[in-house]
Amino acid sequence: MSTGPQQHEPPAELSLAGSVVDKAIEYLIGQNVPPVAIASALLGGSMALLAQSLGDEAIVNILNNAIASVRSGELRAHKAG
Description:
Layout: H1 12-30, H2 35-53, H3 56-72, H4 74-80
């Protein structure tokens, strides 16, 4: 029995979406698009997509989780790892 955090494979559709987004980011960086412009476009598109399928309170919860990750240093820890 493992005492550490369990590692789960992400669902196939999440892996696919992540891979496509990673390739798009690589392409845009190769085109010398500034990282802030890429991130802003991805965030705007993500917010629009969430708004199509979730209520405002669910979106606020997602954003609050993201804010908590930034404040806790978790976001930077993933960058370093």
